[in-house]
Design a protein that fits this description.
Structural class: mainly beta
CATH class: Mainly Beta
Radius of gyration: 19 Å
CATH architecture: 6 Propeller
Number of helices: 2
Number of domains: 1
Helix content: under 10%
CATH topology: Neuraminidase
Largest sheet: 5 strands, antiparallel
Strand content: 35-45%
CATH superfamily: TolB, C-terminal domain
Shape: globular
């Protein structure tokens, strides 16, 4: 029997597939061709983040197969993309979309007994990280994948480990449940693991670490509201990251310029893609005609991967976008994250795991 936590997770995924009886796909207009985009300034040229920036669509893609929801997670500086896809049987598998546009075979951890293997991160050495589900316990465990081999990893002493991001040095980050019972964020530098919790959080998750060892992610507060944050290499935590009108914000990725991407939900239930430029610039991106857009990873060139929901079919499609200079400032209001969140009293251990967003 699948534990309740695993059933809840599968039920959430099933919502996205509620309209699978419709198989037609919508042909989408591409805002600008790739050749023209490559002629524009790349992110490294955006010294000081000029006033006019926007997110522009490059292309869309799907993992091969009928009815697959495609959920890209991260993109390397060499343009390899890692992610997950959900098939029509509600089985989740990881994938790599190589820089030449070809796809890997499905990534399935040999210890996956719950039908869930998720690709979460990739670096320039094509080292992939992710997690898989153990159906017997309902817990997730981390893995690394390289040269066709899986290597499983759990933070010592933890019953639950997900590896959500890694950098080009092979340092990585994620979330675990240590002996305290409070779900924590963690990162590993040179093999040394550091766990931390965002002040006032009941669960903390670290989604990406850049070459400067800045970590970004999100946390759940005592009212079960999600907020973004980032942590400097000296341990200073900045948060919350919340656009104006947000009822929940998730930060998924940062790059070496510490530009961050994610998504937020507004009071009307619409979910918008988000580009955050510290200290307080929020740029929203919505794929045309959808109610759900998520930006999940960004590389050194300002290339972004994410996805949108086709509301007519319930199927998600991958997107590739790019940060570009624009004629006008596209920023929207939002909270300026504090340099250090106020400390709170002891947080009681949670009876339910905050399963990582995707």
């Amino acid at each position: 029997m699948v534990p309740s936590s695993a059933r809840n997770w599968i039920a959430l995924k099933a919502v996205q597939q509620s309209n699978l009886n419709k198989k037609m796909k919508i042909k989408n207009s591409i805002v600008c061709c790739l050749i023209a985009l490559l002629a524009l300034p790349v992110l490294g040229a955006f010294a000081g983040a000029p006033a006019g920036l926007s997110v522009r669509l490059v292309s869309t893609f799907d993992y091969p197969g009928s009815g697959n929801s495609t959920e890209p997670q991260k993109i390397s500086d060499l343009r390899d993309i890692v992610g997950t896809y959900l098939d029509s049987s509600l089985v989740t598998r990881g994938f790599i979309r190589f820089r030449n546009g070809n796809f890997s075979a499905p990534l399935v951890d040999p210890n996956d007994t719950g039908g869930v293997t998720q690709g979460r991160g990739v670096n320039n050495s094509r080292l992939v990280c992710g997690d898989y589900l153990d159906a017997a316990t309902g817990n997730f465990h981390g893995f690394f994948f390289s040269r066709s081999r899986f290597h499983n990893f759990d933070v010592p002493g933890s019953t639950f480990t997900v590896i959500l991001g890694l950098n080009n040095a092979g340092d990585f980050c994620g979330s675990d449940i240590p002996g305290s019972g409070v779900q924590s964020a963690f990162f590993s530098l040179g093999g040394v693991i550091t766990e931390f919790t965002v002040p006032q959080a009941t669960a903390s998750l670290a989604y990406q670490i850049n070459s400067s060892n800045q970590v970004c992610g999100y946390y759940l507060d005592g009212s079960s509201v999600l907020h973004g944050y980032f942590r400097d290499s000296d341990g200073t935590i900045h948060g919350p990251i919340d656009p104006a009108g947000s009822t929940g914000t998730i930060i998924f990725g940062n790059n070496d310029s510490n530009l961050m991407v994610g998504r937020y939900t507004d009071s009307g239930g619409l979910t918008h893609g988000l580009l955050f430029i510290p200290p307080n610039r929020y740029i929203t991106y919505d794929y045309p005609g959808t109610t759900f857009t998520s930006l999940n990873g960004i590389n050194a060139q300002g290339e972004i991967v994410g996805r949108y929901l086709d509301t007519s079919t319930g199927i998600e499609h991958g997107i590739i976008a790019r940060v570009v200079a624009s004629a006008a400032d596209q920023s929207t209001p939002g909270v300026t994250p504090q340099k250090q969140l106020p400390q709170a009293g002891p947080v009681p251990s949670r009876s339910q795991v905050e399963e990582p967003a995707f």
